[in-house]
Amino acid sequence: MMVRLASRLHFYIPVLLAFTLWEAASQAGLIDESVFPSLSSVLVGFVRLLTNNNLLMHAGISIFRQMSGFLLAAGIGIAAGILMATSGWARFAIEPIIRLTYPLPKSALIPLFILWLGIGDASKIGAIFLGALLPVVLSTYNSARGVNVALVWSAWSLGTPRWQVPWKVVLPAAMPEIVSGLRISLALSFTLLVSAEFLISQEGLGYLISQLGENGDYPGMFAAVLAVTVIGVAADRSFLALGNRVLRWTEQ
Fold first, then answer.
1. How far is CA 104 from the centre of its chain?
2. Mean pLDDT estimate for the chain
3. For residue range 67-76, what is the model confidence (pLDDT) as tens digits?
4. Buried b (16+ CB within 10 A) or exposed e, 33-54
5. CA 101/CA 105 separation, integer angstroms
6. CATH code, 63
7. In which region does residue 29 sit, left (phi positive, over 0), alpha (psi from -120 to 50) or beta (all else)?
8. 28: how many CB neighbours lie within 10 A of its CB?
9. Is residue 177 part of a domain?
10. Which of 2, 205, 215, 232 gives 20 to 30 Å between its CA and that of 142?
11. Domain that holds residue 233
């Protein structure tokens, strides 16, 4: 219990300290509030967005897009990484595509997704999917290749069919690094979400941030950014808790 409390304090105290310094600097006139509003005005803007600007609706749309792209990337990425590590043919087919697309800045591909998939949700989900996919594939592939061969031989000697070994032996053994890759992809999915909604969208938190900035409502804009931050942190903490449960299960 004390360890858990200390862990939470270690996370929250720096955040509270940063917020306190932010507000103190604003009240002391050290920050120009016309370009960097005070924390208190941002909180007022946050409440205003909740009541007047359908913040929850925009947040719900953004979460749907982000989770759709991320979950697609997680499922396909893990499967592709395991196949690459256990099948020479799969590695021969998939690895060149990974090498070609990995260095590309994913945000630069958003206009192409809009051209191919239109201005609806599909283009945003597609961009998020591609950006979140590659870290999952690479982390799964590298960790699966590092699995102790003795585990595979033991499974074969116990009569496990060859087609089941990748999923019953290799996947659980590689899970710690896969979870790390998924966490990186989760963070990237939020970045690509906001970038995609900046470019072309009529709803979503990225669109809301863009509109508030263009209208000169900087407290509201910072409040929308704060909303994205809160959602991202909540998603990360939830994923950590889920990841720890998954790792305990695979160890058993």
1. 18
2. 84
3. 999 999 999 9
4. eeeebbbebbbebbeebeeebe
5. 9
6. 1.10.3720.10
7. left
8. 8
9. yes
10. 232
11. 57-251
Tokens linked to 239:
């994923």
In sequence order, the 6+-apart residues with CB closer than 8 A to the CB of 65 are: 121, 124, 125, 128, 193, 196, 197, 204
Looking up tokens 């909303």, which residue turns up?
227
The 3 state secondary structure assigned to the chain is CHHHHHHHHHHHHHHHHHHHHHHHHHHCCCCCCCCCCCHHHHHHHHHHHHHHCCHHHHHHHHHHHHHHHHHHHHHHHHHHHHHHHHCHHHHHHHHHHHHHHCCCCHHHHHHHHHHHHCCCHHHHHHHHHHHHHHHHHHHHHHHHHCCCHHHHHHHHHCCCCHHHHHHHHHHHHHHHHHHHHHHHHHHHHHHHHHHHHHHCCCCCHHHHHHHHHHCCCHHHHHHHHHHHHHHHHHHHHHHHHHHHHHHHHHHC
Residues 6+ apart with CB under 8 A from 140: 77, 78, 80, 81, 82, 85, 174, 177, 178, 181
Instruction: Reply yes or no on whether the pLDDT at 5 is more than 60.
Output: no
pLDDT tens for residues 123-175?
999 999 999 999 999 999 988 888 777 667 676 666 667 777 777 777 888 88
Residue 37 lies in a domain: no
pTM, entire model: 0.86
Asked whether residue 9 is assigned to any structural domain, the reply reads no
The total number of structural domains that make up the chain = 1
